[in-house]
Amino acid sequence: MSASGGTKAIVAALGANLAIAVSKFVAFAFSGSSSMLAEGVHSLADSGNQFLLLVGGKKAQREATPQHPFGYGRERFIYAFLVSIVLFSVGGMFAIYEGYEKIKHPHELEHWYWPVGVLVFAIIAEGFSFRTAIKESNELRGKLSWKEFVRRAKAPELPVVLLEDFGALIGLVLALGGVGLALLTGDGVWDGIGTLCIGVLLVLIALVLAAETKSLLLGESAGIEEVKKIEAAIVDGDTVTGIIHMRTLHLGPEELLIAAKIAVQHDDTAAEVASAINAAEARIRAAVPIARVIYLEPDIYSEAEAAKGPDREATPGGPTPHPAGH
After folding, report:
1. CA nearest neighbour of 248 among 221, 275, 229
2. Which segments within the chain are labelled E, that is strand?
3. CA atoms of 304 and 65, how far apart (whole Å)
4. pTM for the complete prediction?
5. Sign of the alpha-carbon dihedral angle for 231, 233, 237, 240
């Protein structure tokens, strides 16, 4: 996933959320609407989240060190996971608490035109941010559905911004509905119900983000299409006759580690094998540019070992299964 595309979406979301947060707090001060307070805290939390994503992207660019020889690419995963925690605690749980308090102790809204005006402005601003995130994502997701894109994306920034903006738009509609019903009925309980619904929505989005970024932190393999390209690039049909087994691992969104045991002819010389490995590495990097670290171990393929079963460790000649995809 393009880091520049993710950054553009993050900056657009950050600018929109900062402006919206200020307007919501002003509306809360004049109207006393708990929906406005919850939405203001939500927008402030979102602004902090986008700042975290930018910090993570910056830290991930550091050069590898002897202590961290594979670099700092996973910083982006860590900061995306922090976003889910902030969204859950500061955004979701705060809104749930405010909604409960408002339902328990309702009061009539004052200066109703403030929250309504701010909500309309916020919907327009969030819509602009959401549109930017969709545009940047469409350049990368190809034929994947939106659900598949969020689940399979190795770079966390665009999925995070997409879910945040989507949740924000729904939350704004809920807030507008709560304020509107409170005005129509004269019962402030509806404002509290709207706030409570916003909190539940944010908690659910935070849980989805946490699950997806946790998987990235644990370490995901290359996608199915990338694995196929790597396999096709390794085998030349001459010196390298097949792949005995292979592992891939994302060191970062745009950094891939490949480790494979490859089958060579038993009578090949060391020089021929070394030359074949160098050629295979060049083909892999041409086919999958994000392949940064490649380890290829030559071995002799054994049909007897392959026949023992499907386990790749016990039977090094067994087939290499494709990842199911995240």
Report:
1. 221
2. 240-252, 255-264, 291-299
3. 43
4. 0.73
5. negative
